Amino acid sequence: FQHYQEIPRLADAHPKLSHIRYQYGTAGFRTLGSVLDSVLFRVGILAGLRSKKLDGKTIGVMVTASHNPEDDNGVKLVDPRGEMLEASWEAHASTLANAATTSDLIEAIEAIVRFAKIDLSKPARVVYGRDTRPSGPALVASLRDGLAAIRAEPRDAGIVTTPILHYLVRTINTKGTKDTYGDDSEEGYYEKLSGAFKRLVAGKQPLPPLIVDCANGVGADAISKISPQLGDSLKLIPHNTATSTPGALNNLCGADYVKTLQKLPPSLANHLKIGQRGCSFDGDADRLMYFYIDERNQFRMLDGDKIAALVAGFVVDLIKTAGLESDVKVGVVQTAYANGSSTKYLAERLPVRCVPTGVKHLHHAAERFDIGVYFEANGHGTVLFSTGTQETLAHHEPSTPAQSTALNHLLNLTQLINQSVGDAISDMLLVEVVLAHRLYSGLEWDSLYVDLPNRLVKVIVEDRHAFQTEDAERQLVSPKGLQGKIDDLVRRYDGGRSFVRPSGTEDVVRVYAEAAIKSQADELAFRVAGLVY
Ligand code: NG1
Ligand code: ZN
């Protein structure tokens, strides 16, 4: 350990706040930006250790609090293939973050080195990025101190979307190998996506312009960079691009606003014409919600479930047309929050699996299919092509021109889709491709199925850990007896469904309810909430 003499001095400069307990949860560490200084320093050390453990492969660190308020911030680690940090290391992250003093921290580091059998002589490489939050620069400075303390080689990706940081990690680690994923630069990302998009819509009638609500976050930068590359193939009209206006981030706009309130962001009210498509990103541009205003001037939301239905249907049809139906099985992964109508629609067409909330569960379940489509209702998701499927696509000999065209589309989709993580920009282009191929407006897309009215409410309880679930979070096993009471209530509502689970990112319990009519869904949600409270 003698090579790391800087650790004590640097650790003393980033003391842990004694009254706070940190937890590396489904979204990494996430809380008020003002209490994260010590956490960022320690995450720098952990990222260095993770890289050493993986023989110097580059690890990613993203500083963001996504759709949460501007004063929040957070940090998560990205593993070499661009995926979330391996679950067994989440505990190491929490241990380091909670070490009370500098000497406790050093002991904790030594324990991890022993436990995970880390060879400290290996190199360490870390690429990091941040969103547009005002607390970002100071937190990145703390992170850099952590990287310096563990002597990791840093690469600054600057202000980037979360999916771009994942892309960079994957391209850096596959550079010059047969698994190469693209050029390891932000420009490489825009070129890869826009190139694939243009090939996929070549010869199609360009769609009318798309309004993009950037949530006053980093997605605004990304849209301004990719727009020129898309040229005439797609016209984007960005809104909510005020990335430096204090308090604007995610405020009365963005994907979470749209999903939670099922309303048009007020800033778009005079801009979205009847029938026109619009979409919203969240603060780090990994979630996407679509919407339009119908003929009766009603706001219509097209959420992650609608995206899954649209995309899965398109992929299945391409596989059939390409003559690959018996070789490549397409499946869909959802969580309990998926609208019941979407589950019914999808399950009539292909295999559907339900897993607990959290991207890692969805991602892992989707990897089990040849092509796995996963979307959370809140708009986070992507499509995964297994290695075997990518090889099948690369080597398949089409026997008709129609087969050849479908095969090419599938190959281009593997380029367009960010397979490491949900990506608002990549998903937006994917949706636009399907709409262009299907000649759909928002209305036709919306008509695939009719959403069941639903309501999501938060309940503040004394101890949310008292709520334990099974069956992909659809059933409560504790507190004892509560599930029976919920079941009794649900039975009284036509088309009723409801479940209760503790949030993994907030200190609340969430209650979800669906019913055949809106007032009943609301009533069911509030009555179940009454049982929980
Ligand atoms: P929690 O707080 O565990 O419900 C929320 C979202 C998840 C996921 C995570 C990570 C809902 C109901 N829950 O999780 O889907 O996106 O945040 O950001 O939307
Ligand atoms: Zn996000």
TrEMBL record:
Residues 456-529 form the Alpha-D-phosphohexomutase C-terminal domain. Mg(2+) binds at residues 66, 282, 284, 286. It is an enzyme of class 5 (isomerase). The active site is at 66 (phosphoserine intermediate). Pathway: Nucleotide-sugar biosynthesis; UDP-N-acetyl-alpha-D-glucosamine biosynthesis; N-acetyl-alpha-D-glucosamine 1-phosphate from alpha-D-glucosamine 6-phosphate (route I): step 2/2. InterPro entries: A-D-PHexomutase_a/b/a-I, A-D-PHexomutase_a/b/a-I/II/III, A-D-PHexomutase_C, A-D-PHexomutase_C_sf, A-D-PHexomutase_CS, AMG1_II, AMG1_III, PAGM. Catalyzes the conversion of GlcNAc-6-P into GlcNAc-1-P during the synthesis of uridine diphosphate/UDP-GlcNAc, which is a biosynthetic precursor of chitin and also supplies the amino sugars for N-linked oligosaccharides of glycoproteins. This is Phosphoacetylglucosamine mutase.
